[in-house]
Amino acid sequence: MLFRNRFLLLLALAALLAFVSLSLQFFHLIPVSTAKNGVSSKSRKRIMPDPVTEPPVTDPVYEALLYCNIPSVAERSMEGHAPHHFKLVSVHVFIRHGDRYPLYVIPKTKRPEIDCTLVANRKPYHPKLEAFVSHMSKGSGASFESPLNSLPLYPNHPLCEMGELTQTGVVQHLQNGQLLRDIYLKKHKLLPNDWSADQLYLETTGKSRTLQSGLALLYGFLPDFDWKKIYFRHQPSALFCSGSCYCPVRNQYLEKEQRRQYLLRLKNSQLEKTYGEMAKIVDVPTKQLRAANPIDSMLCHLCHNVSFPCTRNGCVDMEHFKVIKTHQIEDERERREKKLYLGYSLLGAHPILNQTIGRMQRATEGRKEELFALYSAHDVTLSPVLSALGLSEARFPRFAARLIFELWQDREKPNEHSVRILYNGVDVTFHTSFCQDHHKRSPKPMCPLENLVRFVKRDMFVALGGSSTNYYDACHREGF
Q1: CA-wise closest residue to 370 among 196, 238, 204, 232
Q2: Are strands 310-311 and 232-234 parallel, antiparallel or unpaired?
Q3: What is the CB-side half-sphere exposure of residue 109 using CA atoms within 13 A?
Q4: pTM of the model
Q5: Is 97 a catalytic residue?
């Protein structure tokens, strides 16, 4: 009997230890087994749909809620992961602004009542929200490039104005900033404690929602920063093309892409029927309703859990929303197949990618300026960059999406530098067109910098076809 009791006790203890071990691995409190040079023996996390956790067929409501990106628990991320003998040299962050009020309203309906003041005891909440408001109120004399100096530093309207950042949008980027602080500052010491203004590069378009999103992320990243060290540059173009924006061939690609979108809409009889039903509800011509882009307003209702609008003729409902959202998803799928958007993206994204590799190359020379670059932008900024990089399966940029380029130095081979690309915390380096095969030849969990440089300097033009070998020629080639 004693032997049997001991055996049962040992068996129970073994089961307990196994459970604890698995739990620790699940929560990443101890490392899972790795291969040589620190590469995980498990498959790298993918940006492809996960058949275990995602619906078996495309669910428009599920996709829309992912787009809303409603703040909840802190997310796990892969930023900053590298073998111990690699040193982080610089980080380049591209963000989409956070949740905003719609840019369009559904005609003849009441605007959704969303409060754009920042209130600490209202959801969603962030521990730094009150401190953020306090710090922004001290920045009225901050020096930004015109016309940014005329914009409010945080949202502050009881009823949101069109396109205004919401409290949700601020919290999304406070979370982004804190996450990046924990990784890049606390863990990797990217910036010294006495960091200087020239170690940051900050750029935003001239919309209040992008400036405020950039400031929210920056405050999460560098709490109570010195206003004298902060300078946001103004970017007039959503493509961040600076002095290289004139590109006739890019515009021709865009015109053909817009024509493709139009023809796809014409073929969708269910979509046309849905627009007709909604137009009768709000008592406007179908053409006027379609031009008002109702999906933008409907997404706001969904993201903020506000009922869709009603009139005396009936209510806009979830079935209407599903049809329009499903068409959006189908449009994105066809866009990938037809490749017209890829041509637009390669030319649209080239200037900002060229700037980025220029900063990386200067950092490899030991220069300590612009170690952290932040571009606060739009969906129409991130989407072309994702497409140009070959990340065709990446989801359309959600609110507060982040795309990050990390530059690393191998301490064992100081002349060798590598890059990692991360999208919303997922390592997508080996999904890019310039590095999708490299991991088959190398055990390192990142891509040689020269691969990215070669892609931007040469391969982007090769992918366009023709004989162009530089950006100007590709933008002006005849006979396209």
Answers
A1: 196
A2: unpaired
A3: 29
A4: 0.87
A5: yes
Round to whole Å and give the CA distance between 335 and 329: 10
CA 454 to chain centre: 24
Task: Measure the CA–CA gap between 195 and 245, rounded to whole angstroms.
Answer: 33
Structure tokens at 11: 């068996």
- Over its C-alpha atoms, the chain yields an Rg (Å, rounded) of 24
Q: What domains lie within the chain, and their CATH numbers?
A: 62-247+340-476 (3.40.50.1240)
CA atoms within 13 A on the CB side of 415: 0
Q: What is the residue whose two structure tokens read 């982080």?
A: 88
The residue that leads in pLDDT, 323 or 32, is 323
Q: 93 is written with which tokens?
A: 């962050």
Which helix (H) or strand (E) is 407 found in, with range? strand 402-410
C-alpha dist (Å) from residue 375 to 122, 153, 238, 369: 29, 16, 11, 16
320 classed as catalytic: no
Q: What is the pLDDT of residue 24?
A: 39
Q: What confidence tens digit (pLDDT) does each residue in 216-242 have?
A: 999 999 999 999 999 999 999 999 999
Burial of 132 (0-12, 13-18, 19+ CB in 10 A): buried
Catalytic residue among 59, 296, 331, 379: 379
What residue ranges in 63-110 does DSSP mark as E strands? 86-96
> 405: part of which helix (H) or strand (E)?
strand 402-410
How far is CA 448 from each of CA 159, 187, 443, 469, rounded to the nearest angstrom? Answer: 49, 23, 12, 22
In the set 92, 97, 173, 327, the catalytic residue is 97
Would you mind telling me the total number of residues written for the chain in this entry?
Answer: 480
Q: What percentage of the chain has pLDDT greater than the value 70?
A: 87
Q: Which one, of 210, 225, 218, lies nearest residue 184 by Cα?
A: 218
The SS3 call for residue 128 is coil
